[in-house]
Amino acid sequence: MAFQFEPSVVVDTLPMLMRGVWYTIYLTVGGLFFGFLLGVTVGLMKIARPWLARKVAGTYVELIRGTPMLVQAMFLYYGVPMAVGIRIPPLMAGIIVIAVNSGAYIAEIVRGAIQSINVGQTEAGRSIGLTRAQTMRYIIWPQAFKRMIPPLGNQFIISLKDTSLLMVIGVGELLRTGQEIVAVNFRAFEVYMAVAMVYLVMTMSIAKALKMLENRLINRTKRA
């Protein structure tokens, strides 16, 4: 039988995907919130004076960046409960995986942005009596944060798309919702087209918002 494309299926599917959209947004925002805190901490550890802090931070980054997020998710959800006897709810496991995974990449973004600031800025801060922490807070960090925005935006988009991998641990995100719809109506082409359209709208919206934020900061810097 020849395949016949049904546009009405795409239209009918879009409202049904909204539950998955909210799960996807929740996972992304929650995971990246904790991932940013973790990434900033680890990024600062990588440039800290104590060698142990640098070693621990470096090991974490290499371990996470060197293994697929899908493996990390399955290890956390299936492996850890078997070892310690504590079962982690799928949604919580998903947020933890996104946080831990994105934290490793954000740590490198933070480290690179801070180290890109001319060392003379630090010397100037110390010469006027600021402590190392005050120099970082008032001089280095504001400049470095502006440079972090484009790569952080890319990481936001990557993490949003990576939530689709969490369907393997039973999280009802966008792709999992689409899969459940296909199991009922058997219209895989139209349903997955609708899923792709929703992902595209979300990623393009994020990219546009981040571009506006970046331009706003650039204009503010020029006025200053």
List keywords for this structure.
single chain, 224 residues, mainly alpha, 83% helix, 0% strand, flat
Order of helices and strands: HHHHHHHHH
Structural class: mainly alpha
Poorly predicted ranges: none
Number of strands: 0
Q: Please give the share of residues in helix.
A: over 70%
If helices are DSSP runs of H or I spanning 4 or more residues, what is the number of helices?
Answer: 9
Structural Rg: 21 Å
Question: Would you mind describing this structure in some detail?
Answer:
This protein is an all-alpha fold and 224 residues long. The protein is 83% helix and 0% strand. Helix 5 (90-116) packs across helix 7 and helix 7 packs antiparallel against helix 9. The protein starts with 6 loop residues before the first helix and ends with a helix.
Brief characterization of the structure:
The protein is mostly helical and 224 residues long.
Topology summary:
Layout: H1 7-16, H2 18-46, H3 51-65, H4 69-84, H5 90-116, H6 119-127, H7 132-162, H8 174-185, H9 188-223
Helix pairs in contact: 1-9, 2-3, 2-5, 2-8, 3-5, 4-5, 5-7, 6-7, 7-9, 8-9
